[in-house]
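User: Predict structure, ligand adenosine-5'-triphosphate.
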Amino acid sequence: MICLGIESTAHTLGIGIVNEKGKVLANEKSNFTTEKGGIHPSKAAQHHVLMYQFVLDRALKTAKIKPKDIDIVAFAQGPGLGACLRVGAVAARSLASLLKVPLIGVNHCIAHIEIGKLTSGFKDPITLYVSGANTQILALASGRYRVFGETLDIGVGNFIDVIGRSMGMGFPAGPTIDKLAKKGKNYIELPYTIKGMDFAFSGIQTKINQLVQTGKHKTEDLCFSAQETVFAELTEATERAIAHINKNEILLTGGVAANSRLQEMLKIMSKERGVKFAVVPMALAGDNGAMIAWQGILEQKANYKMKDTAINQHWRTDDVDVTWL
Ligand code: ATP
Ligand code: FE2
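Assistant: Predicted complex:
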């Protein structure tokens, strides 16, 4: 069984091809980026339309398959930006109907978790899912991935991109901040907002924007201080979750999982706690089509029944019944 997955929830148009054993045959993508400023949903959607054929052809070529070899088409049905989601949905519907194969709409956040489980081999982890729009601590309980902790305001990736923008960086700012933070030496005191297993970033964001405007601090020090603060919040909340919930694996997934300092902090904490720790591989950390394809395979094997193919911009992780485990 071969599934082709289409990801288009935000900045990335991804097309992945995965077989039923979880082998990634292709994982092609085109990212909408900017040199300055954030992303505009309609511009990102236009990028996806323009790049679709190119990315599709490349994916088929890399996987060394013909369209007729595709058994299932999966697409990210939500959550995400409406304009971007619609591009993937239209493409997936027409491809599935042309090939006369099942169409499966999957939840993007769940796909981030399941691809991490596939690559780590973890069966029942506590997942720290960190991306642009989402920041959640999740674990399976009574048939759903329940949210045990989450951001009270913005996603940590969004926080990173906004402070990056105030320092003159383009989108995404994460990789640049990751690099610059390594050169930072002076820790600048910032607000630290954590409530039980929930955390918040907008106060820190406002403070950093104010500090940038004073022009008194080195960008490296600001990046270093921002990372130390928000990643300490995430590590503290995850540690509290692992202390409360009886699980012994921690999985880090989502676009911000690529961050070297966040990985390091969680690794140290996991070692001290005596639990296993894994990070999703770089190519599968940020938005990608392979994770959508793998989720398609899982749901098809569990006899997925399509209700409708309308996009769902605000589809929550804990709204999905986990039928495939
Ligand atoms: P979601 O819909 O799951 O919220 P998303 O649209 O934000 O996903 P992802 O590709 O999962 O997309 O995550 C993108 C985020 O990851 C961006 O905010 C980007 O700055 C951040 N990021 C990428 N690399 C790094 C890094 N090395 N350090 C920190 N952040 C990073
Ligand atoms: Fe994502």
